[in-house]
TrEMBL record:
UniProt keyword annotation of Cytoplasm present: no
Residue stretches making up the EngC GTPase domain: 84-227
NCBIfam families registered for this protein in UniProt: ribosome small subunit-dependent GTPase A (TIGR00157)
Keywords: GTP-binding, Hydrolase, Nucleotide-binding
Annotated CP-type G domain residues: 75-229
EC number annotated for this UniProt entry: 3.6.1.-
GO molecular function, a single term: hydrolase activity
Protein name: Ribosome biogenesis GTPase
Source organism of the structure: Catenuloplanes nepalensis
Major enzyme class: hydrolase
UniProt cross-references to Pfam families, sorted A to Z: RsgA_GTPase
Length: 304
């Protein structure tokens, strides 16, 4: 399933888009972009009656989020599946205009590790600023990255997208649409698929999958409605997976240590002070932890 709009689901059947609706049998199960589904009814699209989605295949990965951390309503605490079956999270960040926010990138990394999909850092606007500072911050991580600029070569990016289902996230203005339009020259046609069932892509807030013109089946999923990843339901332990460079420093922590400022026996501060990791990484971890539990970690320039 590649797009959903007002109860109409666009599914690819034999490389052709087909509009379908959900069948009652699905109950309350939500069908999300990336789902592989079973269809019944008119799957040729010739009779004018819509095919129905009767089954959702088991998902190989689930990218989820809660609403933003400061949304403490019951609705805001609800977990949503953003995309199913993706295998790569492309975190798009501009090197300038707007400046990179490592807090946001860290938040995305946690979401990627939590979903079990690999992260890729895509640094745009390399014509405006260099990547040294951002890459320095992530020096201890095996974090693959690509740089892009307006008329530059996109082959490095194309290469890491090849054969994969990649989800793209990033703040407004970092250059996601620019990249998609360059990667998928006939994006308009693909957008047309969505428009045909309702509103156009630019007003849509749900994810849309676009097929890249390449030999292998490669998809890029744009998530215009996802500005960030609320992590309310991610445990402290899982949160730490987004900070693999800090894990070694926790071996001497007491059991159940969440590594907050108020954990007196936490071994991390001393380990970081000894030079084993960048102190900003510990600060970022603690900020995410605090934001997650509704604390005051939301302020500051690095708020995700
Ligand atoms: N200098 C420079 N400008 C860029 C680059 N990529 C995109 N831009 C510009 O940055 C602005 C925002 O680009 P978009 O592609 O609309 O950004 P977006 O991430 O899709 O933003 P939303 O649609 O708000 O989510 C546009 O004016 C682009 O022309 C780049 O590599 N270098
Ligand atoms: Zn600790």
């Amino acid at each position: 399933m590649i797009a959903v709009d007002r109860g109409r689901y666009t599914c690819m059947v034999d490389d052709e888009p087909l509009t379908a609706m959900r069948a009652r049998e699905l109950g309350r199960k939500s069908v999300v972009v990336g789902d592989r589904v079973g269809l019944v009814g008119d799957v040729s699209g010739s009779t004018g009656s819509l095919a129905r989605i009767v089954r959702i295949e088991e998902r190989s990965s689930v990218l989820r989020r809660t609403a933003d951390d400061d949304d403490t309503t019951a609705e805001g605490r609800l977990e949503r599946v953003v995309v199913a079956n993706a295998d790569q999270l492309v975190i798009v960040s501009a090197l300038a205009d707007p400046p990179p926010r490592t807090g946001f990138i860290d938040r995305c990394l946690v979401a990627a590790y939590d979903a079990g999909i690999v992260p890729l850092l895509c640094l745009t606007k390399a014509d405006l600023a260099g990547p040294a500072e951002v890459l320095g911050y992530y020096a201890e991580l095996d974090l693959p990255h690509v740089l892009t600029e307006p008329d530059g070569d996109l082959s490095a990016l194309r290469e890491v997208l090849a054969g994969r289902v990649s989800v793209m996230v990033g703040h407004s203005g970092v250059g996601k649409s620019t990249l998609v339009n360059r990667l998928v020259p006939d994006a308009d046609r693909a957008v047309g698929v969505v428009s045909a069932v309702g509103k156009g892509r630019h007003t849509s807030t749900s994810a849309v999958a676009l097929r890249l013109p390449s030999k292998e089946a490669s998809w890029i999923i744009d998530t215009p409605g996802v500005r960030s990843f609320g992590l309310a339901l991610v445990s402290a332990e899982s949160l730490l997976h987004g900070f693999p460079d800090l894990v070694e420093g926790t071996v001497d922590c007491p059991p159940n240590c969440e590594h907050t400022e108020t954990d007196p026996e936490c071994a991390l501060p001393a380990w970081v002070t000894a030079g084993h990791a960048d102190v900003r990484r510990l600060e970022s971890y603690r900020r995410l932890l605090a934001s997650r539990s509704g604390g005051d970690g939301l302020e500051g320039p690095d708020r995700g």
